[in-house]
Design brief:
Elements: E1 11-14, H1 19-29, E2 35-38, H2 44-51, E3 56-60, H3 69-82, E4 86-91, H4 93-106, E5 110-114, E6 125-130, E7 133-138, E8 146-149, H5 159-176, H6 184-204, H7 211-234, H8 238-250, H9 254-269, H10 274-284, H11 289-300, H12 315-326, H13 337-349
Parallel strand pairs: 1-8, 2-3, 2-4, 4-5, 5-8
Antiparallel strand pairs: 6-7
Length: 354
C-alpha cells in the first residue's frame, strides 16, 4: 500500500430527539455568543426549538437550491451587519451550502443540523451558482466544526424526498470508490456507508414515525455521514461532475438528479473497476453491484428520468463538453463523446440498465 489519507477535524453528535440541547452545547463549546441561524421558512417548526436554546442575533430564511451567488451575497452582508460570531444551519444541503458560503468569506464556525441525507455537513466542499454555471471548490474554512444528527428531525421528511436524498448519499459512496484521490480508507468507509444506507432506506421510505422508522433514520444518517466523509477525502468523480453540470445548467433538483444518474454511472464504470465492484456488491449482499442497486431501487421506487425534472433533450449536447472537461482523468472507464452521450440519453429517458 502507498497512499496519503487526510482525516478532517469535526465533532459529530448523534442525539435523537435532543437537538436543541445538543446544539446549545456545541455553540457554547465553540465560544459562540451571537448566532446567525440559517433555516428556510419550510424548516421553521424544526428550527424554533433550537432557536430557543441558543443566543440568536439573526434568523436568515432565504435559502435557494444550488446557492446562487446573489443569495450568498445577501446572507454574507446580513451576517456581517449583525456581528454574528457563529453560524447554525438547520436544513438540507442547500441550507448547509449557504452557511458554507458565508463561512468561506468570514471564517465563522458552523454547527450543522441536517434535516436530509445530503451529507454536505461532513465535507469541506462548497458550491456556488452564477447564471447556468455551478462552481465548486474545497476549503477547510467551510467544514462545519460540529454536526448534530437528530433522527427526530427527519420523521416528517416526505418519502419521495427521503428516497432521493438517501440515493444522493449512496452516490457519494459509489463515487468514493474511484474518485480522483480515492484510497483504501475511503473505500472501506464507503462500503460500510452503502451497507447502512441499503439497510436503513427501506425502513424509512414509507413510514419514518414509529420506532422502526427512527432506527431506520439513524442507520440512514449513519450511512450518509460515512458517505460524505469518504467523498470529502476521495474527491468528486464522474457521477458528481455530471450532476453538478446538469444541476447548474438546467436548475435541476439536486437529490433527484443524483438518484437518476447513479445507476447509469455505476453500470458505466463497474466493468473496469473490479475491486470497487466487488466491494459495492458485498455491501448490498448481492453477487453484482448493479444487481444490488437495482434490487434496492425496486423497493424504493426512486426518481427514474432526468426529463421528469425539466431537463430538455437538447441539453445533452449542450452539457457534453462541460461534463467531459470536468470528469477526472483516472475515471475507470475511458470517456468518449459517444459513450457519455449514450449515458446521458439513457438517464434523460430513464431507459432500463443493460
Amino acid at each position: 500500500m502507498k497512499f496519503t489519507h487526510a482525516t478532517l477535524p469535526q465533532r459529530v453528535v448523534f442525539a435523537a430527539g435532543e437537538s436543541p440541547a445538543a446544539v446549545a452545547a456545541e455553540v457554547d463549546a465553540l465560544g459562540g455568543s451571537k448566532v446567525m441561524l440559517i433555516a428556510s421558512d419550510r424548516e421553521k417548526e424544526l428550527a424554533d426549538p433550537i432557536a430557543k436554546e441558543i443566543p440568536v442575533v439573526l434568523r436568515h430564511e432565504e435559502v435557494v437550491m444550488h446557492v446562487p451567488v446573489e443569495v450568498a451575497g445577501r446572507a454574507l452582508r446580513t451576517a456581517v451587519d449583525a456581528g454574528a460570531d457563529i453560524l447554525v444551519s438547520v436544513g438540507g444541503g442547500s441550507t448547509t451550502g449557504l452557511a458554507k458560503a458565508v463561512a468561506l468569506t468570514t471564517g465563522l464556525p458552523i454547527v450543522a443540523v441536517p434535516t436530509t441525507y445530503a451529507g454536505s455537513e461532513a465535507t469541506n466542499v462548497w458550491g456556488l451558482t452564477e447564471g447556468e454555471t455551478k462552481t465548486t471548490g474545497v476549503d477547510d474554512k467551510v467544514l462545519p466544526a460540529s454536526v448534530v444528527y437528530d433522527a427526530g428531525l427527519l420523521t416528517s421528511l416526505p418519502g419521495e424526498m427521503t428516497v432521493a436524498s438517501g440515493l444522493n448519499a449512496m452516490a457519494h459512496c459509489v463515487d468514493s470508490m474511484w474518485g480522483p484521490r480515492a484510497d483504501p480508507i475511503d473505500r472501506a468507509l464507503a462500503q460500510e456507508g452503502i451497507r447502512a444506507l441499503a439497510s436503513g432506506l427501506p425502513a424509512v421510505a414509507d413510514d419514518s414515525t414509529g420506532i422502526e422508522g427512527i432506527e431506520g433514520i439513524e442507520q440512514t444518517l449513519y450511512g450518509a455521514y460515512l458517505a460524505a466523509v469518504a467523498f470529502a477525502s476521495a474527491g468528486s468523480g464522474m457521477h458528481h461532475k455530471i450532476c453538478h453540470v446538469l444541476g447548474g445548467m438546467f436548475n435541476l433538483p439536486h437529490a433527484q438528479t443524483h438518484a437518476v444518474v447513479l445507476p447509469y454511472v455505476l453500470a458505466f464504470n463497474a466493468p473496469h473497476a473490479p475491486e470497487a465492484e466487488a466491494r459495492i456488491a458485498q455491501a448490498f449482499g448481492s453477487g453484482k453491484a448493479g444487481a444490488g442497486l437495482a434490487a434496492l431501487r425496486k423497493v424504493l421506487d426512486p426518481p427514474r428520468a432526468l426529463r421528469d425534472y425539466g431537463m430538455p433533450e437538447d441539453g445533452i449536447a449542450k452539457a457534453l463538453g462541460s461534463i467531459t472537461k470536468a470528469i477526472p482523468d483516472n475515471n475507470p472507464t475511458v470517456v468518449t463523446d459517444e459513450n457519455l452521450t449514450a449515458l446521458l440519453k439513457a438517464a434523460w429517458a430513464g431507459d432500463p440498465i443493460n
